[in-house]
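[Help] Beginner question about ligand-bound structures

Sorry if this is basic. My supervisor gave me a protein sequence and a SMILES string for coenzyme A and asked me to "get the holo structure". I don't really know what that means in practice or what format the answer should be in. Inputs are pasted below exactly as I got them.
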Amino acid sequence: MSKALDGVRILDFTHVQSGPTCTQLLAWLGADVIKVERPGGGDITRGQLRDIPDVDSLYFTMLNHNKRSITIDSKHPDGKAVLEELVAVCDVLVENFAPGALDRMGLGWEQIQKLNPRMIMASVKGFGPGPYEDCKVYENIAQCAGGAASTTGFDDGPPLVTGAQIGDSGTGLHLALGIVAALYQRNATGRGQKVLAAMQDGVLNLCRVKLRDQQRLAHGVLKEYPQYPHGTFGASVPRAGNASGGGQPGSILKCKGWETDPNAYIYFITQAPVWTAICKVIGREAWITDPDYATPDARLPRLKEIFGVIEAWTMTKTKFEAMDILNEHDIPCGPILSMQELAEDESLRKTGTVVEVDHPTRGKYLTVGNPVKLSDSATEVTPSPLLGAHTDEILRDVLKFDEARMNKVRASGALGRAAHV
Ligand SMILES: CC(C)(COP(=O)(O)OP(=O)(O)OC[C@H]1O[C@@H](n2cnc3c(N)ncnc32)[C@H](O)[C@@H]1OP(=O)(O)O)[C@@H](O)C(=O)NCCC(=O)NCCS
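Answer (accepted):
No worries, everyone starts somewhere. Holo just means with the ligand present. The predicted complex, written as structure tokens, is below.
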């Protein structure tokens, strides 16, 4: 079966999480991704948070499926020469080094364009042009600088970061979209271009509704926020706890077993069109016509009380029992699922969203597969490469090196010690 990005070759100069997320997604869509790594250790995450001694960490394996690995010392003249040849035959260079690192390697945009005017050069950086453009950035810094932390958490607590990697993986996804768009434009222009996804921008994009609320605040208090009607609003959007970010009020409610199970909760949305059904399910038929509860506007100042009554009902059911009952009435709700529950979820296994992969030195482990499903471009998740596993293969098949050139560059030390396969 053909793949959406068949024929696209990517020079993957990424490391840690943001860049690798992007190139892994492109690999799943069919691109040939050649990951360039420093001889010796490679991507730093290979050795980080290791659960098994001397085996590539899950951190690395889960972000680098379907790629090939070549080790090249980019600061060695012979290594640089190999890199330049790769630039000439690839379509996209993806990198997420600290600002300036690529220029220091002698592979700035000018040089790339000289080597290959069709090359798309895609970068993740922490910040776009401005006062912080030279800063190194990791996930939580981006969450804080992009507006996620200031708007996450409870009103009486400090800013909170979220477990979803919206700074790293979120920006990687943004970058992948930019790359595909640039490839499409290149079909018409024949030219490459630079693509930049700054982590602050990516996070802010995902916090779009909070900038919406910032502007609404100028016209009055935010009535769907838990601060209404008894709390206070300041100059900027407050933290909304677990209140829904949309126009339909929602909350996380306890379910049966919450005293011992930290995930015995359900998210419950009091969607206006099913208000009658909600009242019937929880045994509060009087609320259907009571003017204090019958309309969305009347309910806004009473959300705390309303969710308290609904919770008294959800606490008599497990989250899955509550789901079954509420779904019968089309009441929007969702269980709080633990990672253990997600790992064991049969339906996610069937769709390939959770996949078991067999790694040559680690054995079997679970990963998140391609979350984007294309009907004519199926994803097969293959293990991440061992460090330098494809060095010879790439020199031979992609760069057409003969034995003599292979021996020369190997002897120079630019590829590190002999690659293990
Ligand atoms: C993530 C980050 C903070 C890590 O910083 P770091 O570990 O210090 O790594 P750097 O990106 O600075 O790169 C380190 C050096 O390795 C060098 N290097 C990388 N690959 C190499 C190779 N194959 N051969 C030789 N040197 C190599 C780089 O040239 C750089 O050297 P220099 O500083 O002398 O120019 C930084 O890369 C960053 O801010 N990236 C952009 C934002 C981002 O993506 N953050 C999220 C990460 S999940």
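A couple of things worth pointing out: The two ends are 27 Å apart (CA to CA). The mean pLDDT is 96. Feel free to follow up in the thread.
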